[in-house]
Design a protein that fits this description.
heterodimer, A: 306 residues, alpha/beta, Rossmann fold, 7-stranded parallel sheet, 13 helices, B: alpha/beta, 5-stranded parallel sheet, 5 helices, 23% strand
Chain lengths: 306, 136
């Protein structure tokens, strides 16, 4: 109901946290995004958007939780989007991250929201930029995103955040083997987490050695222990000193987002299309590759009017 | 995309008992039924729980208590929910609740009390039926 949305937007502009919460749900469902983004108004100042990625168990939630304290001590407000995977079978999700992120219940400078990330998108939650924009328009200084875990989606997340932090931990030599293939290069900062455990220096040395082989600028590597608190202040000093990536690409990225939404909306119209059914059958047989099939789908969507 | 928005449920233990086996089993069952379960964990204060409900835009709040403090903590949660403008959120209570306290909790506004021996489908069905037709 448009009247209801208008009321919500008005309450949002009055800094009503329940209105923010309700609008986050609407956007997360992919509904009325354009109206909402227009309705919340321009952001007074851009937030610093920081995403944390890394394998399951590396301590993303814990580090985000500790970072909330550090950011508050720096005098900034902070919103958190904690993403957990959605079950591909039931569509349900068990979102257990806020358990590890305790904030003072009366502190209005903190807002934590759990998000179910749909399957098939790697670690990427749908409509992430729009959700971030809501936090930004509400006035948060820092937006933290905890991704589902290291995966293909994270290179996409990078385009939508200012700083992508990759977490590694001691005794994960095997992980390093596959992570170095992609994530080390796209990370803006690398944290050797659980640095109070033995072996942290060795992982740090391995990472530095791998990074030195590249030709681009080298991301800072920091040892952090959420248990002892060592390295947390340094991490946030480093993050604050990094350039804001989003600002520079904002226009192009927003357009891309609109294009993606248009394609998604068109998909409903072609879902029963015989051409798509043939394509799916060929893909299933293996006579076309995934890349070819995706390209064919794109052509089909391009030629569809909605 | 689903036809109706997924039901969002915050599950939490308020008070000081450390028995979280039951609430974790319930969390899993609700997830498998397609709901989005936000597990807020052990030793939560009523204030922290109500804050989680607000920030997560939850439809339901499930509280588990095995400490015997339910007649103190549950009214406190209900009062805070009303104060926060969250009276539309349905409240469920699970755990060890003496028979005599059940009508009192219901009168205060608890939608349902699930005691020991409750089957998981019973909880799932209750939430699905009540979520379809509005609740609390």
């Amino acid at each position: 109901m448009p009247a209801m949305l208008e009321t919500l937007l008005e309450r949002f502009r009055q800094r009503d946290r329940l209105a923010l919460s309700r609008l986050l749900s609407t956007v997360a469902r992919g509904e009325r995004i354009e109206e909402i983004l227009t309705g919340v108004g321009e952001t007074a100042k851009p937030a610093r958007v920081v995403a944390f990625t890394g394998s399951g168990g590396v301590g993303k939630s814990t580090l985000v939780g500790k970072s909330i304290e550090t950011i508050r001590q720096r005098g900034q407000s902070v919103a958190v989007l904690a993403c957990d995977p959605q079950s591909p079978l039931s569509g349900g999700a068990l979102l257990g991250d806020r358990f590890r992120m305790t904030a003072r219940p009366d502190d209005d400078g903190v807002f934590i929201r759990s998000l179910a990330a749909a399957g098939g998108h790697g670690a990427l939650a749908e409509h992430l930029p729009a959700l971030v924009h809501l936090f930004e328009a509400f006035g948060f200084d820092v937006v933290l995103i905890e991704t589902v875990g290291a995966g293909q989606g994270d290179t996409v997340v990078r385009e939508w955040v200012d700083v992508l932090v990759l977490l590694l931990q001691p005794e994960t030599g095997d992980d390093l083997q596959w992570e170095k293939a992609g994530l080390l290069e796209v990370a803006d900062a690398i944290v050797i987490h659980k640095a109070d455990l033995s072996g942290a220096e060795r992982v740090e040395a391995q990472v530095l050695a791998t990074l030195s082989l590249g030709t681009g600028p080298v991301a800072p590597v920091l040892r952090v222990s959420s248990r002892t608190g060592a390295g947390l202040a340094e991490l946030w000093q480093t993050i604050a000193s990094l350039p804001l990536r989003r600002g520079r690409q904002k226009r192009g990225r927003d357009l891309l987002l609109l294009a993606q939404q248009t394609l998604t909306a068109r998909f409903a119209a072609v879902e029963a299309h015989p051409e798509l059914q043939q394509l799916l059958a060929a893909w299933e047989r293996g006579t076309v590759t995934s890349t070819q099939a995706a390209a064919a789908l794109f052509r089909l969507l391009r030629d569809t009017d909605s | 995309m689903a036809d109706s928005p997924p039901v969002r449920v915050v599950l939490a233990k308020v008070g000081l008992d450390g028995h979280d086996r039951g609430i974790k089993v319930v969390a899993r069952a609700l997830r498998d039924a397609g709901m989005q379960v936000i597990y807020a964990g052990l030793w939560q204060t009523p204030e922290a729980v109500v804050r989680a409900v607000a920030e997560e835009d939850a439809d339901w709040l499930g509280l588990s208590l095995l400490s015997g403090a339910h007649m103190t903590l549950v009214p406190r949660v209900l009062q805070l929910l009303r104060g926060a403008g969250l009276e539309h959120v349905g409240v469920l209570v699970g755990g060890i609740i003496p028979e005599g306290d059940i009508p009192k909790l219901r009168e205060m506004g608890v939608a349902r009390i699930f005691g020991p021996g409750t089957s998981l489908p019973e909880i799932v069905t209750f939430l699905q039926e009540r979520s379809g037709a509005g609740h609390a």
